[in-house]
Amino acid sequence: MTTVDMRYTGSALDRVEGLEKVTGRARYAFENFPADLVYAVPVQAAIARGEIRAVDVDAVLEHPGVIAAIWYGNAPRLVPSDNADLAVFQSRRVAYRGQYIAVVVAETYEEAKEAARLLRVEYAAEDHDVRLRADHPNMYRPEKVNPNYPTDTEHGDPDTALTVAPVLVDATYSTPAEHNNPMEPHATVAEWDGDALTLYDSTQGASGVRDTVAPLFGVPPANVRVISPHVGGGFGSKGGPSPYVIIAALAARHVGRPVKLAVTRQQMFAVTGYRTPTIQRVRLGANADGRLTAIVHDAFEQSSTITEFAEQTTTPTRIMYAAPHRRTTHRLVRLDVPTPSWMRAPGECPGMFALESAMDELAIACQIDPVELRIRNEPDADPESGLPFSSRNLVACLREGARRFGWADRDPAPGVRRRDRLLIGTGVAASTYPVYRRPSQATAQAHRDGRFTVRIAAADIGTGARTVLTQIAADTLRTSPDQVLVEIGDSALPAASLAGGSMGTASWGTAVVRACEALVEGLDRRDGDLPAAGMESSADTTEEIGAQRRLSRHAFGAQFAEVGVDTDTGETRVLRLLGVFAAGRIINPKTARSQFIGGMTMGLSMALFEESIMDLEFGDYLNRDLAQYHVAACADVRDIEALWVEEDDPHLNPMGTKGIGEIGIVGTAAAVANAVHHATGVRIRDLPIRLDKLMR
Amino acid sequence: MSKAMSMDFLRPMTWAEALAAKAADPEARPILGGTDVMVELNFDRSRPSALLDLTAIPELAEWELRDGVVRLGAGVPYSRIITELGDLLPGLAIASRTVGSPQIRNRATVGGNLGSASPAGDAHPALLAAGAEVEVESVRGVRIIAVDEFFLGPKRSALQPGELIRAIGIPVTGGPQQFSKIGTRNAMVIAVCSFGIALHPAQRRVGTGIGSAAPTPLRAHAAEEFLGAELDWDGPLDRAVANRFGELVAAAASPIDDVRGTAAYRRHALSVLARRTLTWSWEEYRCV
Amino acid sequence: MRVTFTVNGSQQTVDDVWEGESLLYVLRERCGLPGSKNACEQGECGSCTVYLDGSPVCACLVAAGQAEGRTVRTVEGLSDTGLDPVQEAFLDAGAVQCGFCTPGLIVQAHDLLERVPDPEDAEIREALAGNLCRCTGYEKILDAVRLAAARRTAK
Asked: Is B4 on the interface with A (CB under 8 A)?
């Protein structure tokens, strides 16, 4: 099935939009200035649960420049949908603190901001419940987990197997709420022309935003155009339209002028999604030789009262290791908290922290090297579905990583290696991420001057999508990349799946290949004789993807970390980080390496810093800015390297790719935590690895 | 007309004009590097009646050495303290290097950070340890406030209505000085806790300053007295003395649990920082 | 209020500036120079780094009125002809991903190389300490600064 020749695919083509970005000319959503525009500043709920009794709209309308103030009491009604988060201003209810409950529109940003600050809102507050705990009485079993996995699975008799297992690990891990924090805060510029809406939005999927927004305003999707050529990162938080998009469109329609709306960094902590905190109990039963007999992984998570988002935390456990007896479960509680959503590798990322920490604990319990332990439990086929793996090279990653990292002579004893004030330790963890592919459409057009234009409503959120699609198109068209213009980031282009689930290249690439193949065929038929208007072919991959063979398709990797922990203060620094990945064919080593390392760095950040702290009294996230929510800075990342092993998997897509956007973050935190244990003898089961936890 | 629209932007060109402007509108918010004030404005936390921009007043950006005291103009940015005052004020220079980022250090000033009186201000422990004095002025005249009497509470200082910070007087001790802070990250860190120490060999005295471990930056008086009595200025540092010093510094703090760390951790870390900085200073002192 | 300052070599007079506004807002919303990015509004991320009278600063923390009579240089004005070596190196090293932190990083790296033509890695990390990037993991950015330094010294 892998059909694309490797001529330009596989080469380190420079990012095609790089010039615009280094000169500051690339235009992001908020940098659009339609004529006659006005500014919207939304107002956030100051209670965590209750009702809005009244909003004193009239008072702010007297302020200079103020054009409108909109809330439930005077908002136009939207067409009801099943997405309660997007039903902005359609109810008096407040579901969480920080929820957008009103918006002020004014001639200038300053006037809107001032009026929003002064807008008086009268609430009837109710007691709120914002604390996740595993024994919460309202824990329930959701119907499915994101995006569409079974909630629970069970094979064999895990309870008995755990009882009789010669070696047992039974530990509870927790991960905090984390916020995506792409560098570009979410923003949109909305402009109506009659019944037609244009949105300049910062989004991971223009087609999806169009399809979601249009019905809310009762217009056909064709009437909505979403333009998003450059996106300053998303990491899941720009996967679908967040409430601010609807507010901008609603406000623009209400005042009859284009509206600019920027979500502030602080507001992002409530209104643009986050990774749910998790509590996870992992039980591993094994023989003395480390062979697993039972794996049980139970996850407890939260969602908001208005939207069920059930993260798939234990799904990686379903495919990682062989064991005859196994169970995975997810339980959810609906709290008065903002709605969690996708954040880079939802499910895999927190889930693998728990599983891979537990595997380290098992290695110690069995006195087996942790690399060897994982190799010993390598399954022949998908342990739960029984399906063959399309390819699985975890063992190769572990071996190659161990060799490169200098793992062979590792002394397993914890807390014994000193270098000046530091205790030194090393750790390993496995990574995995599923291979998804979604239907997309694309067109390819040949021009008489020998150049080509390829069109698809894909999104480049910094991944390099525009660049790799150029390479894929060039090879399929048997031309060079400088002859190919790839147009993306606009819902007016052929519809495409979103940039998420590490499936962009696989999904869009397949459509681009099929469109280009059809064009080449057409050109061959005409012997290269083109009409004046050129020639265009199109493709829709719905059928192809629907017909694909059932296999277990996953990327794998191994991460190795070395840490130094200050013996007196607990300050922890990651001295070395190495990731080795098996992710199919790599289209562009330059952009790919950056994606892997970027993911690993976010994993390092998760291990040591990232934590959104819920204020139990007020019910919102306390540390809602970049001074208090720490992400890794340049000085935190020292010796970091990402490599990949050759992997030729014919069962994927025409390019032979597996997707690389998320696997880099999976496993990193466990590798770091395992290294911290090796350094200090202290097992940190609750992220992040804060100084004070090491000095207790 | 709303309040926002009526904010004034005042830009005195001389110190006298600045004092007059502050007298005319005591609510006017002085602004130097903007690293505290602009965050307040950007985040909509405060709306002063006016911004009083002091960056056009030349003498605020100057420093001079007279009678063993550096008179540091309130508007000298940290980047200049690092490059120009490392020899005279080593403790403050070390602390200055840990302030924010290069961009922040190019703008932020000791005077400005004193004005906002943050418990986590990086310069404050070094000023406390050195025994600095804050020179404040209004149209009523000049007042000199010892820096350990300057901080009254979180973000509250001894500045009275109409007063502006003109300069900070920092004695040149001639002895070793150190500053150390604990942070989770390697850069751009608000201190979990910090500690500054200054040896005053001529007076056979040690100055201390604690940051981020109490409602205000503060001195560890008992620890200073202990060292004053127990230190053998002619011999090596007694490990037991250093340990006890650490304990007394920790005891002086009244930290809280917060996002950045627990109170217990802060106390522990302070004792480590105190012991360490004393050891480093002592090594330097013995080598001179 | 009215603010007059020099930006990228030409004098600009901007009217109706709100007194509490930042230089960043003036550049982005009033001067047609959105190259400097707004990402945190508190000087934590460095995305808005510009030169103010020759020193790199966070434009979000400069009050608009403080720019009166001063000289500002943004990423858009870094090079009169073609690309500055730092911009070129960011392209060649693959140091750009989403691009939102890029303008600030380029101005900050440009200043480093003006002051320290051949920096050690530690100096680079220190200089870039206040520029957050969420995509790249910084490795390629370090590569780019090393590359730019090497090319500048070779010239």
From this structure: yes
In this predicted model, what pLDDT tens digit does every residue of A487-503 receive, in sequence order? 999 999 999 999 999 99
Interface pTM, i.e. ipTM = 0.98
C51, C58, C114, C145: which to substitute to probe chain B, counting the most B Cβ within 10 Å? C58
Identify the residue among C16, C17, C19, C37 best suited for mutation to test binding to B, counting B beta carbons within 10 A and taking the highest: C19
Minimal CA separation from A493 to chain C, in Å: 21
Contacts of A176 in chain B (CB under 8 A): none
Architecture of the domain defined by A144-178+275-435+551-694: 2-Layer Sandwich (3.30)
Residue range A183-214, pLDDT digits in tens: 999 999 999 999 999 999 999 999 999 999 99
Q: pTM for the full model?
A: 0.97
Nearest-CB residue to C43 (from B39, B47, B51) = B39
Q: Which of A650, A522, A664, A554 is nearest to A599 (CA)?
A: A664
Domain range list for chain B? 4-53, 61-171, 177-287
A662 given a catalytic annotation: yes
CA gap C111, A81 in Å, rounded: 52
Strands (E), A116-195: 121-125, 144-145, 149-150, 153-155, 167-175, 187-193
Choose, from A111, A562, A611, A662, the residue flagged as catalytic. Answer: A662
At residue A508, the 3 state secondary structure works out as: helix
For residue C103, give the amino acid letter. Answer: P
Rounded to a whole number of angstroms, the distance from the CA of B262 to the nearest CA of chain A is 7
Query: Could you tell me which chain B residue has the CA closest to the CA of C127?
Result: B102
The residue with tokens 């998790």 is A278
pLDDT by residue, tens only, chain B of 288 residues: 344 457 999 999 999 999 999 999 999 999 999 999 999 999 998 889 999 999 999 999 999 999 999 999 999 999 999 999 999 999 999 999 999 999 999 999 999 999 998 777 899 999 999 999 999 999 999 999 999 999 999 889 999 999 999 999 999 988 999 999 998 777 667 788 999 999 999 999 999 999 988 899 999 999 999 999 999 999 999 999 999 999 999 999 998 888 778 899 999 999 999 999 999 999 999 886
Contact yes or no for A356/A674 (Cβ under 8 A): yes
Architecture of the B61-171 domain: 2-Layer Sandwich (3.30)
Topology annotation, domain B4-53: 3.30.43
Number of other CB atoms surrounding residue B232 within 10 Å = 9
Dmax over CA atoms of chain A, in Å, equals 77
Per-residue HEC secondary structure of C15-54 comes to CCCCCCCEHHHHHHHHCCCCCCCCCCCCCCCCCCEEEECC
Is residue C39 less than 8 Å (CB to CB) from chain B? no
